[in-house]
C-alpha cells in the first residue's frame, strides 16, 4: 500500500504558511505536519509520486499533441516538400529555408484578405445576432414559474447542442435546401423554389442562424445559474419600494447578470478569429470560397487540399499569433473587471 | 385524539407535488393573461423551431415510398409507418459498418478519455503536492493557443497514425476544460474524509476509486456525456487521417449520403426498384446519428448546471 508518511492536505497547505509551527500532538484527525514548502524535494517527490504518476498520461498527451506541434510551425519559414520522405519530421529537417517568403505571399494574396474580411463579418454578425439570444431566453425561462414547463423547455433547448455539425447542416438542408420543406411549400402554392443553402449573399446569416439553433439554448445555462443566485429578498425589497415587474427586472435582474455578460463578451472578442470551422467547412462547397472562406478554412484548403504546407502554416501562424494576443488581452480585461477563473470555453 | 392523528396522516398528501407551481409571494402581482400567453408563445415557438425539423426527419424516415411521393418530398403527417429504411441500413453494408465504427470509437475513446482525465484531475486536486501548480499551468496554457492545423496534421502523419483509428482518439483525447471541471468537483470533497481514509491505510488509487468517484457521480456523468458526444460527433479528423472509405465513421458517411446526395453503397439498387425511397434512407441515417444523443442527454440534464459551474469557477 502506497501510504504516505507525511500528511498532505489542502487545509495544511493553506494554513501552514501562516502558522509554521506545527503541533506535534499525535492525536486528532487534523494533525498538522511541517510546512510542505520546506520539505526536502526528494521527500516531497516520494510523498507525491502516486499523484504525479496519475497526472502523467494527461501531461504526456498535452506535450505530444499540444506543445510538440508548435515546433512544426517552422514549416511556415520553409519551402516544405512532403515528398522528401514519408515521415513529416524528416521532411521538415530536409526542406529548404525561405525566410519570410510565405508571409510575403500571404499578404499579397487577395484570397487571404477575403478570408479575413469574411471572418470579421461573421464575428460581428454573431456578436450582434447570436450573443443576446441566450440572455433573452434565460430571462424568459427564469420568469416562468411552473417547474414542469421550465424543465421540459430546457430539455428541448439544450438538445441541439449535442448534435454534430454534420447533423445540424443536414437538418438545415432539409428545411431550406433546394428540395427542402420551405421550397416544397412554396412550390405547392405556385411560387418558385428557393435554395437558401447555396446563396452566397445570405451565407453569413445562415451560419449565424445555425449557431443560434444549435447553441443558444445551451448558452442559457450560465445565465440561469447567475439568476438563481440572486437573493429573493432583493425582489421583495424592490417591490416594497414600489417597483413594478419591469423595474425589478431592470434594477435587480439585469445587474445580477452584468458580470457574466461582460465576461462572456470579453472572452468572445478574444476568440474573434475563430468562427465555426467545422460548420463552414461543411458548407464551403455549396456557396464557394468567395463568401464562405474564413481564416481556418483558408489554412485547411491551402495546406490539406493543395499540399502547400509552408504557405498554409504561415497563414495559420499569423492567425494563431493574433488570436493569442486577443485572448491574452481579453483575459487581462476580464481580470481588470475583477473576474477570476477566466478560462476560454 | 383521533382527529389529530388523522391530520398527521393527511399531512404528506397535502404537500404540493414537485411539478406544481410554488406559491406566489404576497408582494408579487398576479401575472396578466396576456403576459403569460406571450411568454408561452415565444417559448413555444423556440421549442417548436427545434422539435419541428426533427419531427419531419423522423416521420420521413418512417414513411413508405408512396407517402413520400404523395407529399412531394418531406413528410409532415405520418401515414403508414414502415421500418424498411432502417432494415435496409442495418442489414450489413456501408451504414451498418459505419455505425459500428462510430459506436466502437465512442466507447473506447470515452473510456480512455475518462480514465486519463479522472486520474489527472485527482492528481491535481490535492493542492500542495509537488509540481501541482506547474502541471496546472502546463494544461491551462493550452486553452490560450493552438499549435495550428498544419503542424498537427504533419505530426499525426509522422507518428504513423494515418489510416488508424488511433488518429481519431489520441489527438483529441483530453479536454483541459473537462479536467478542470472534474478537479473543481474533487476539490470540493471534504479533506477530512480523505485524511481519515488515508489513516485507515488507503492509497491514492483506492481513495479515488472508493471515496472520490462514488461522491462525484453527477459530474462524472456530465463529463462522460461531453466526451462521448465529442467522439460521436467528430468527423473532421476522420476526413483528414483516414483514406479508406470502409473505415469511415457514421458522421462521414452522413456527409456523403445527405449532403452530397450520394446513394449508400449496396443500396442503390434497392432504392431504384423497391418500395424504398432514397429520402427515407437519408433521414434514417440522420435519425441514427441523433438518437443516442437525444436519448442520453435528458438523463444527465439535471446535473449540467452543477457540473458546468463547480469546475469552471474554481480553477
UniProtKB/TrEMBL annotation, chain A:
One of its GO terms (cellular component) is plasma membrane. Its main location: membrane. Residues 116-330 form the ABC transmembrane type-1 domain. It comes from the Bacteria. It holds the Pfam family BPD_transp_1. The chain crosses the membrane at residues 50-70, 120-141, 162-183, 203-228, 309-330. It is found in: Cell membrane. The keyword Cytoplasm does not apply. Keywords: Cell membrane, Membrane, Sugar transport, Transmembrane, Transmembrane helix, Transport. One of its GO terms (biological process) is transmembrane transport. It is a multi-pass membrane protein. Residues 1-38 are annotated as: Disordered. CDD domains: TM_PBP2 (cd06261). Belongs to the binding-protein-dependent transport system permease family. PANTHER family: BLL4140 PROTEIN. This is Putative multiple-sugar transport system permease YteP. The gene is yteP.
Automatic annotation (TrEMBL), chain B:
Keywords: Cell membrane, Membrane, Transmembrane, Transmembrane helix, Transport. It is found in: Cell membrane. Residues 99-294 form the ABC transmembrane type-1 domain. InterPro entries: MetI-like, MetI-like_sf. It is a multi-pass membrane protein. GO terms for biological process: transmembrane transport. Gene3D superfamilies: MetI-like. The chain crosses the membrane at residues 40-58, 98-122, 134-153, 165-186, 215-234, 279-300. Residues 1-26 are annotated as: Disordered. GO terms for cellular component: plasma membrane. Residues 1-11 have a biased composition (Basic and acidic residues). PROSITE patterns: ABC_TM1. Belongs to the binding-protein-dependent transport system permease family. This is Putative ABC transporter permease protein YtcP. It comes from Streptomyces ambofaciens (strain ATCC 23877 / 3486 / DSM 40053 / JCM 4204 / NBRC 12836 / NRRL B-2516). The lineage of its organism: Bacteria, Bacillati, Actinomycetota, Actinomycetes, Kitasatosporales.
Amino acid at each position: 500500500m502506497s501510504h504516505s508518511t507525511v500528511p498532505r492536505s489542502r487545509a495544511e497547505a493553506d494554513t501552514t504558511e501562516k502558522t509554521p509551527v506545527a503541533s506535534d500532538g499525535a492525536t486528532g484527525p487534523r494533525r498538522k505536519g511541517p510546512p510542505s514548502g520546506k520539505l526536502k524535494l526528494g521527500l516531497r517527490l516520494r510523498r507525491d509520486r502516486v499523484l504525479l504518476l496519475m497526472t502523467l498520461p494527461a501531461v504526456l498527451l498535452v506535450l505530444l499533441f499540444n506543445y510538440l506541434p508548435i515546433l512544426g510551425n517552422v514549416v511556415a519559414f520553409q519551402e516544405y516538400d512532403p515528398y522528401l520522405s514519408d515521415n513529416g519530421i524528416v521532411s521538415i529537417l530536409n526542406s529548404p529555408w525561405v525566410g519570410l517568403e510565405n508571409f510575403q505571399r500571404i499578404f499579397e494574396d487577395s484570397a487571404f484578405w477575403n478570408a479575413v474580411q469574411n471572418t470579421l463579418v461573421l464575428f460581428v454578425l454573431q456578436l450582434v445576432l447570436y450573443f443576446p439570444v441566450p440572455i433573452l431566453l434565460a430571462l424568459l425561462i427564469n420568469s416562468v414559474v411552473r417547474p414542469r414547463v421550465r424543465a421540459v423547455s430546457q430539455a428541448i433547448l439544450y438538445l441541439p447542442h449535442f448534435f454534430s455539425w454534420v447533423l445540424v447542416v443536414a437538418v438545415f438542408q432539409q428545411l431550406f435546401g433546394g428540395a427542402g420543406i420551405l421550397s416544397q411549400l412554396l412550390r405547392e402554392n405556385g411560387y418558385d423554389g428557393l435554395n437558401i443553402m447555396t446563396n452566397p449573399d445570405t451565407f453569413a446569416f445562415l451560419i449565424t442562424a445555425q449557431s443560434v439553433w444549435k447553441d443558444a439554448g445551451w448558452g442559457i445555462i450560465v445565465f440561469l445559474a447567475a439568476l438563481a443566485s440572486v437573493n429573493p429578498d432583493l425582489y421583495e425589497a424592490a417591490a416594497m419600494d414600489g417597483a413594478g415587474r419591469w423595474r425589478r427586472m431592470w434594477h435587480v435582474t439585469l445587474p445580477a447578470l452584468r458580470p457574466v455578460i461582460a465576461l462572456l463578451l470579453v472572452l468572445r472578442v478574444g476568440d474573434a478569429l475563430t468562427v465555426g470551422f467545422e460548420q463552414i467547412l461543411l458548407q464551403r462547397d455549396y456557396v464557394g470560397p468567395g463568401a464562405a472562406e474564413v481564416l481556418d478554412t483558408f489554412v485547411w484548403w491551402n495546406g490539406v487540399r493543395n499540399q502547400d504546407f509552408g504557405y498554409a502554416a504561415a497563414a495559420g501562424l499569423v492567425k494563431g499569433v493574433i488570436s493569442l494576443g486577443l485572448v491574452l488581452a481579453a483575459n487581462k480585461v476580464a481580470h481588470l473587471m475583477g473576474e477570476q477563473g477566466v478560462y476560454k470555453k | 385524539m383521533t382527529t389529530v392523528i388523522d391530520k398527521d396522516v393527511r399531512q404528506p398528501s397535502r404537500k404540493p407535488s414537485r411539478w406544481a407551481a410554488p406559491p406566489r409571494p404576497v408582494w408579487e402581482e398576479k401575472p396578466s393573461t396576456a403576459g403569460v400567453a406571450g411568454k408561452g408563445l415565444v417559448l413555444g415557438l423556440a421549442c417548436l423551431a427545434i422539435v419541428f425539423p426533427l419531427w419531419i426527419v423522423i416521420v420521413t424516415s418512417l414513411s413508405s415510398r408512396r407517402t413520400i411521393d404523395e407529399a412531394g418530398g418531406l413528410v409532415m403527417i405520418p401515414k403508414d409507418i414502415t421500418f424498411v429504411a432502417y432494415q435496409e441500413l442495418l442489414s450489413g453494408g456501408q451504414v451498418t459498418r459505419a455505425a459500428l465504427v462510430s459506436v466502437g470509437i465512442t466507447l473506447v475513446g470515452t473510456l480512455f478519455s475518462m480514465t486519463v482525465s479522472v486520474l489527472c484531475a485527482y492528481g491535481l486536486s490535492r493542492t500542495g503536492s509537488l509540481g501541482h501548480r506547474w502541471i496546472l499551468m502546463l494544461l491551462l496554457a493550452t486553452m490560450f493557443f493552438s499549435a495550428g492545423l498544419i503542424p498537427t496534421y504533419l505530426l499525426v502523419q509522422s507518428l504513423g497514425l494515418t489510416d488508424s483509428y488511433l488518429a481519431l482518439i489520441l489527438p483529441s483525447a483530453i479536454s483541459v476544460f473537462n479536467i478542470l471541471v472534474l478537479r473543481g468537483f474533487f476539490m470540493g470533497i471534504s479533506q477530512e474524509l480523505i485524511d481519515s481514509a488515508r489513516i485507515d491505510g488507503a492509497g491514492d488509487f483506492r481513495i479515488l476509486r472508493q471515496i472520490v468517484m462514488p461522491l462525484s457521480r453527477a459530474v462524472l456523468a456530465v463529463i462522460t456525456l461531453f466526451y462521448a458526444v465529442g467522439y460521436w460527433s467528430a468527423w473532421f479528423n476522420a476526413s483528414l487521417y483516414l483514406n479508406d472509405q470502409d473505415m469511415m465513421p457514421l458522421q462521414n458517411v452522413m456527409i456523403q449520403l445527405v449532403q452530397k446526395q450520394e446513394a449508400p453503397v449496396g443500396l442503390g439498387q434497392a432504392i431504384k426498384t423497391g418500395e424504398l425511397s432514397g429520402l427515407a434512407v437519408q433521414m434514417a441515417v440522420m435519425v441514427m446519428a441523433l438518437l443516442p444523443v437525444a436519448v442520453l442527454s435528458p438523463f444527465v440534464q439535471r446535473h449540467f448546471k452543477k457540473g458546468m459551474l463547480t469546475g469552471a469557477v474554481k480553477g
